[in-house]
Amino acid sequence: MKTQTLKALAAIIVIATTAPSHAQENVMENYTASYIPMPAAEGQTVAFADFLTGAAPIVKETEPGTELWFALQDSDTLAIFDIFVDDGARSAHFSGAVAGALNESADALVAGGWDAGVVANINNSNVLSAKAPVDLYNATTATYIAIEAAPGKADDLAALLTAAGPIVAETEPKTLFWVALQIDENNFAIYDIFADNSGREAHFAGQVAGLLNTQASDLVKGGWDDGVVANVRNYDILAIK
Questions:
Q1: Which residue has the higher pLDDT, 21 or 159?
Q2: I want to staple 128 with a disulfide (CB 3.0 to 4.6 A). Which of 85, 94, 157, 180 is the partner?
Q3: Contact assessment for residue 132 and residue 218, using Cβ atoms and an 8 Å cutoff
């Protein structure tokens, strides 16, 4: 199995490095990210969604280091996903106007309030690889997938995800943005956006999903079904910065 894994990793690295030069650029190098899923307080889903939708222009106006910001909704769960140019920009975001307004409103809008409903759900990460955003404001739907590496396989999983960005850029025109993240030593994530569900379906039938499927039994805790598919969370996009 180790030999098969190494061969597969070698194959995707060859694909990535032989792609046209514009796809080889290491976009978002040294960028950071945050993902915060937040359950709406009872009866407050619409109000919370309206709050986040209205926050996008404020982020755009006041947070130059926040490269991308997404407000998301899946039923009664709202979420924020954002990309920062560096750690300093992430710190500025969490001390910014939108974070301050959410802190003030959290007791009313978020189940668990600020501490248990927001802060406890923050997932900070570093960007491993990305497809630069295209047609950004055509996106209507997003997917976030948490992935835990199998014991001893974190470096191999990180290598696969790092090599995947150029492949997505070259082979998935309907994937409008894609980013692979490392949360900590063993935990990773993928976030991507699509114009519609046909883009998501094309992505999950694409080369990177196929490679991850092939290698998941070795690289991912729980394998493909329990370690990847079970952790897929689909969202509607409410607003984008």
A1: 159
A2: 180
A3: no
